[in-house]
Amino acid sequence: MSHSIQTLEAALHDVLGSKVKLLESALGELTLTVSAADYHDVCLTLRDNARLGFEQLMDLCGLDYSDYKDGAHSKFTDGPRFAAVSHLLSVTHNWRLRVRVFAESNDVPVVASVNDLWNSANWFEREAFDLFGIVFDGHLDLRRLLTDYGFVGHPFRKDFPTSGHVEMRYDAEQKRVVYQPVTIEPREITPRIIREDNYGGTH
Fold first, then answer.
1. What is the CATH number of the domain that holds 131?
2. Full residue range of the structural domain in which residue 83 is found
3. Is 160 inside a domain boundary?
4. Domains: count for the chain
5. Structure pTM?
6. How many alpha carbons lie under 13 Å from residue 41 in its C-beta half-sphere?
7. Has residue 86 been placed in a domain?
8. pLDDT of the chain, 203 residues: tens digit per residue
């Protein structure tokens, strides 16, 4: 672990105290996990505390920790499925931090918006809402960003079917675009392997 990472780790424990649920170091990076109740306050402290000084939010994304088909959840939690992960940069101290917060509900995942702290969170949070269905409480313009207006569901969830729920096509008779249930039949394709005698052998 580098000296700067050790310095940051100590500062996080000193400044945040019991609000640190989990602090992991891997591959030269720190990941801080906080509760949904503390998330906004922690982010405000990360930005404004002089020992931390994370002026910039570089990225924010959604995560689905469930494992489709067997229902396994992340080893880091007792059951929450959805998380938002932010990547912060301190130009002042030249260090980075990953912040993870799990939504308490799997049915309607909600975490606080940090758009009021970092303007760059705006479209990142909209993307996570669109693709994972994570609601960012306090976001003033939370609407779909990448999918179509009539899109049903959230396509990055692990239980979302590959073919989707609704398909869109142009109807020549109605002279307009129409939406209808997907008519594609899902099927499993097993590749056929043909091996010739002495394939790859010496001649």
1. 3.30.460.80
2. 3-146
3. no
4. 1
5. 0.79
6. 11
7. yes
8. 456 899 999 999 999 999 999 999 998 899 999 999 999 999 999 999 999 999 999 999 999 998 744 554 545 545 789 999 999 999 999 999 999 999 999 999 999 999 999 999 999 999 999 999 999 999 999 999 998 877 888 999 988 887 777 777 899 999 998 888 877 676 677 776 666 666 666 65
